[in-house]
């Protein structure tokens, strides 16, 4: 049973841990200046962090089913604190990029807590619990950008990494003491668990489709939040590092949508396929609004509100669907879905940075809209398996007798 206290603990852990993946995004301009490299070169730090996260999803998250969670999670948090501390004193871009990989890898703690909570929750409250945790994840992402931007204005980008290291050290200690002890969920070895992940991916077409939709959605999301830093710091707006950090607060609506969306999905479970399509369509529209942000801040704010809200709508709906595909060992489901998801994010960061360098803000928005189109194709492909089937009338008794 999932108590309110445990849910709050898991939510806080998710929020403060996921922030480590996103600190670099609003700092790219400052990192580039401090290490004397180009902005496009500095973007590799974000890509490396996301690739590290993807590697952790493949190699570390499967351990969530076969290792006691308390010791595994607290150990990962402690290692992350040490790596962040080393990042604060990195002498050049190469070292910072190398350290970004284990930062991302250890941050997969988030993807252990969400399936853990889904397993403990009752079926009729599962989407609501996922929505709560996803709301805390989004708040962590948004707070990371604001925190990084404001603190960097005072202590530089190195001060941000140092503060993050201290926060993770405290979190590791609290989790080690407060998280309830538990036995491993599945009594198999590591290699057998990895083989089970592959079998699951092969046997569940709904999981594969939802993973594709999630990857495309997160690619669009990452494309925006990586490149908007360049736009806001550029000659059009000329925002300071602190102001760029505060801009991230416009996405708070997305956290509210994650919370409300989870409750609605519990109530209208048969509408999940349709809700996904609506969210993808409006996500596509949001990038048209964002493209106008190159000439007007109001358009940029409105587009960011829409983009964050409907990105979370797609993501929460995806997870509500996939965590009902199997009754146990949900770390396997998470490994398949979130690995694909973050590979999509890394692709969005890389292509968005390249598009911005060559074609500017409109080019980056066009790339993001293209990813939304891919998500739409995945959604259409899911129709046959996910759309509720019409109820056929019973045959007349005489026909049944035959």
Task: Please tell me about this protein's structure.
The structure is a single chain. The protein has 402 residues and is mainly α. It has one domain: MFS general substrate transporter like domains (Growth Hormone, Chain: A, Up-down Bundle). Helices cover 80% and strands 0% of the residues. It contains 18 helices and no strands. The protein has helices at residues 4-22, 28-35, 39-42, 44-59, 63-66, 69-87, 93-106, 110-120, 126-178, 190-203, 205-233, 241-247, 252-267, 272-291, 297-322, 330-381, 383-386, 397-401. The longest helix has 53 residues, at 126-178.
SSE layout:
Layout: H1 4-22, H2 28-35, H3 39-42, H4 44-59, H5 63-66, H6 69-87, H7 93-106, H8 110-120, H9 126-178, H10 190-203, H11 205-233, H12 241-247, H13 252-267, H14 272-291, H15 297-322, H16 330-381, H17 383-386, H18 397-401
* Overall CATH class: Mainly Alpha
| Low-pLDDT residue intervals, each spanning 5 or more residues | 389-402
- What is the total tally of β strands? 0
CATH architecture: Up-down Bundle
Residue share in β-strands: under 5%
Report the mean per-residue pLDDT as an integer: 82
Keywords:
single chain; mainly alpha; Growth Hormone, Chain: A; 80% helix; disordered C terminus
């Amino acid at each position: 049973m999932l108590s309110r206290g445990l849910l709050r603990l898991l939510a806080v852990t998710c929020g403060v841990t996921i922030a480590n993946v996103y600190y670099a995004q609003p700092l790219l301009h400052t990192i580039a200046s401090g290490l004397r490299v180009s902005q496009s070169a500095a973007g590799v730090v974000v890509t490396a962090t996301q690739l590290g996260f993807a590697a952790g999803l493949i190699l570390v998250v499967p351990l969530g089913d076969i290792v006691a969670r308390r010791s595994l999670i607290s150990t990962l948090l402690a290692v992350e604190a040490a790596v962040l501390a080393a990042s604060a004193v990195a002498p050049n871009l190469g070292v910072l990029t190398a350290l970004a990989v284990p930062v991302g890898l250890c941050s997969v703690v988030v993807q252990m807590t969400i399936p853990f909570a889904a397993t403990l929750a009752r079926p009729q409250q599962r989407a609501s619990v996922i929505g709560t945790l996803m709301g805390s994840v989004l708040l962590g992402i948004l707070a990371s950008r604001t925190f990084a931007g404001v603190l960097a204005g005072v202590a530089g980008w190195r001060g941000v990494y140092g503060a993050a290291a201290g926060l993770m050290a405290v979190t590791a200690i609290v989790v080690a003491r407060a998280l309830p002890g538990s036995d491993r969920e599945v009594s198999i070895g590591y290699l057998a668990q990895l083989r089970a992940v592959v079998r699951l991916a092969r046997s569940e077409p709904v999981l594969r489709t939802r993973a594709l939709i999630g990857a495309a959605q997160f690619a669009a999301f990452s494309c925006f939040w990586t490149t908007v830093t360049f736009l806001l710091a550029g000659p059009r707006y000329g925002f300071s590092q602190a102001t760029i950090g505060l801009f991230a607060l416009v996405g708070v609506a997305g956290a509210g949508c994650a919370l409300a969306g989870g409750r609605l999905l519990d109530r209208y479970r048969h509408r999940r396929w349709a809700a996904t399509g609506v969210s993808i369509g409006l996500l596509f529209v949001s990038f048209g609004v964002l493209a106008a942000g190159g000439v007007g801040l109001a358009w940029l704010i409105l587009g960011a509100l829409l983009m964050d809200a409907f990105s979370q709508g797609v993501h929460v709906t995806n997870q509500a669907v996939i965590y009902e595909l199997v009754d146990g060992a949900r770390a396997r489901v998470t490994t398949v879905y979130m690995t694909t998801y973050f590979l999509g994010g890394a692709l969005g960061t890389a292509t968005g940075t390249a598009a911005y360098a060559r074609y500017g803000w409109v080019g980056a928005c066009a790339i993001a809209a293209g990813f939304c189109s891919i998500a739409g194709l995945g959604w259409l492909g899911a129709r046959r398996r996910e759309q509720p089937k019409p109820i056929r009338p019973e045959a007349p008794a005489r026909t049944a007798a035959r």
